[in-house]
Amino acid sequence: MADNPLLEEFILPPFSRIKPEHVVPAIDTLLQENRDQIHDLLETVQKPDWVSFVEPIEKLDDRLNRAWSPVSHMNSVVNSDELREAYNACLPKLSAYATEMGQNADLYSAYKAVLENDSELDGAQRKMLENILRDFHLSGVDLPLARKQRYKEISERLSTLTSKFSENVLDATHAWTRQINDESELAGLPESALDLARQTAAQRDMEGWLLTLEFPSYYPVMTYADNRELRYEMYRAYSTRASDQGPGAGEYDNSVIMDEILALRHEQALLLGFSSYAERSLAKKMAESPQQVLDFLNDLAKRSRPQAEQEYSELEAYARDVHGLDKLEAWDVAYYAEKLRQSRYNISQEELKPYFPQHMVVQGMFDVVSRLFDIRIVQTDGIDTWHPDVLFYEIRDSDRDELVGQFYLDLYARPKKRGGAWMDECAVRFRSQDHVQTPVAYLTCNFSPPVGEKPALLTHDEVETLFHEFGHGLHHMLTRIDYPGVAGINGVAWDAVELPSQFMENWCWEREALEAVSGHYETGEEIPDDLYDRMVAAKNFQSAMQMMRQLEFALFDFRLHLEFDPEKGARVLEFAEAVREQVAVVRPPEWNRFAHGFSHIFAGGYAAGYYSYKWAEVLSADAFSLFEEKGVFDEEAGRAFRKNILEKGGSEDAMDLFVAFRGRKPDVEPLLRHSGIAA
Known about the structure:
Elements: H1 20-44, H2 50-77, H3 81-102, H4 105-117, H5 123-138, H6 145-175, E1 177-180, H7 191-203, E2 209-212, H8 215-224, H9 228-239, H10 255-271, H11 277-281, H12 290-323, H13 330-345, H14 349-352, H15 358-373, E3 375-379, E4 391-397, E5 403-412, E6 422-427, E7 430-432, E8 435-437, E9 440-447, H16 460-477, H17 499-505, H18 511-517, H19 529-537, H20 543-562, H21 572-583, H22 599-602, H23 612-630, H24 635-646, H25 654-662, H26 669-674
Helix pairs in contact: 1-2, 1-3, 3-6, 4-5, 6-10, 8-13, 12-20, 15-18, 16-17, 17-23, 20-21, 24-25
């Protein structure tokens, strides 16, 4: 098709030239070409092996993925009605294609023949083929025709529903704003939050200050605003987004969508012979059974709950005795917790922000990972991006000066951009007989942008977020595996995929690393020793409460998918309440609808897998304990982590790779110690 940039051969997408009208024709063309060429391969290749059969299909899949990647990414970061329409039009097409390939018995037989007969296969190729054959079974290749068709219908419907869920959260978030003309209503807010609210109002040609539900606006109000009524108003709007109780109620309500998603996931799991979607989800994870997951979460809850209850009792007593508050409500918790933290440790996120100007944090993070993993990171100008704020970098191996990866960095919150932080693939490492492809990543955050003449200043929590996402990026970009299906994060057990990201967060607390990532934005002064000591002392403030909060999310997600009963329906609110009875220390009001905005499990790939954050945190804490023993910049330990974890991708079993790095199986004690929770 003439003049369609999505059909050109590119690695770095031509973002400025991609228009919504290009999307559907390009995807239609590529899907048909793939179907035709796979049909020809099945007809003509008599004795399929890696080179004659697998590699050509990998090239077809890779070309499709590289065309779809910028479309999917732009839908998240520069969303528009036209792009959304084109994106949604393609979802059922892509789902149908994936199911069609996954249920193709001839294709399955050919892959099986390669695994059984190609004597030249290396270990990574074998692992990829084993994963492919497993995925054929998970796509219903063994099912009778009628069940195959039903599986396909469910897959297409789920792709539409999960996208709609995400859209409703985005639209509901942007549907609510609060204009304030009297600055006294914003008493307690730090100058940086006032500046952002003033700038947000000015950008929309409004007077005064404008608050939104985007996190850089929401978080400071909940943490610092003395105006309790304003905290209540924002908490209610945020915690009821995309629900029957929230902003735009009815228009953006995810209730019916959630019910249908859960019912369809359960039905699809039953079609494949599993008893629940939770059981089906474990087919690609380290955990061996639903009971093992529940035991893991319940054990952590049992160990953490006494301390969490004590922390909450202390907060209640502080709010009552010092501030005269009769009853601590959900919209009071962050506010009084911050006051208690300041009272106890004389420190706040705001006090640290001047020491974390964005440019120093980013360069300092690059210096840290360069020392750890023997790489160089260089900014490259003149690259076509989707927004003027986006930066572009190359990663080179220090020894060989070899280009090993590239990435886009999009740091700031803005309208039409999905909230949160994430790493996604632009291109995957792929080397074949005649083809060399360097991995490229998108790294996306939603930090407060620069205000006026000041640079963007990050909280320490945001510094951790940046290190976290860059850990995912390193996993994707430092891989040495040449086959896309097991290169980088691909093929990695989902409950191990957070290992590198959570592992990297540890350096945000180490003095030597902090010196690299910090410096006062006006003076360049290092974080003073006294401030650093207070920061470390406050590190585990209310850590058991935080642990219980994450366990609440994980148990809710897992039980929702494990215990689904078609006769009774989804029972989302019922499960939320049951899990709160079990583990919640902070009890939200009856109208709270956190599940309606829980994109991780309804639209983000973590269904029956949110526990993975805690599972991988055990791995990451134990991995970092080696650096605690040997030194935080120990070269041997850094090279071992790069070699055994980052470079190997999904080419070997996740537990085997961890043991190769650590010398033993993981231990939960370092996690409890790092969290300040008594074992």
